[in-house]
Amino acid sequence: MELTHSRGAIAAEVRACLSRRRASQKELAVALGISVTTMSDRMTGRSAFDTDELLQIAAFLDVDFVELFPMSIRTSSAA
After folding, report:
1. What is the pLDDT of residues 49-70, one digit of tens each?
2. CA–CA dist 17, 61 (Å, integer)
3. I need a surface site. Which of 20, 28, 61, 79 has the fewest CB within 10 A?
């Protein structure tokens, strides 16, 4: 899977989890200690979340870390 596509796919999963939890990008940015602009870049796939951010996001959303990855990434790495 192409890196840019992976960034966008992970961002889409984060957006979906945020929506299910009825949380905003701004709330998530505050929880991560990053600016709203940086969060916007992450959420649109312009820049990638780092591992620490993904761990913090999983904790904030009370989801398992792997839920932030699309099924296509989860299954391709298991093969």
Report:
1. 999 999 999 999 999 999 999 8
2. 7
3. 79
For residue 15, with 0-12 CB atoms within 10 Å meaning exposed, 13-18 middle and 19 or more buried, which class applies? middle
Write out the two tokens for 47: 């820049």
pLDDT digits (tens, 9 = 90+) for 31-46: 999 999 999 999 998 9
Which tokens sit at 57? 């996001």
* Contact assessment for residue 61 and residue 23, using Cβ atoms and an 8 Å cutoff: yes
Question: Among residues 56, 58, 50, which one has the least CA distance to residue 7?
Answer: 50
pTM: 0.84
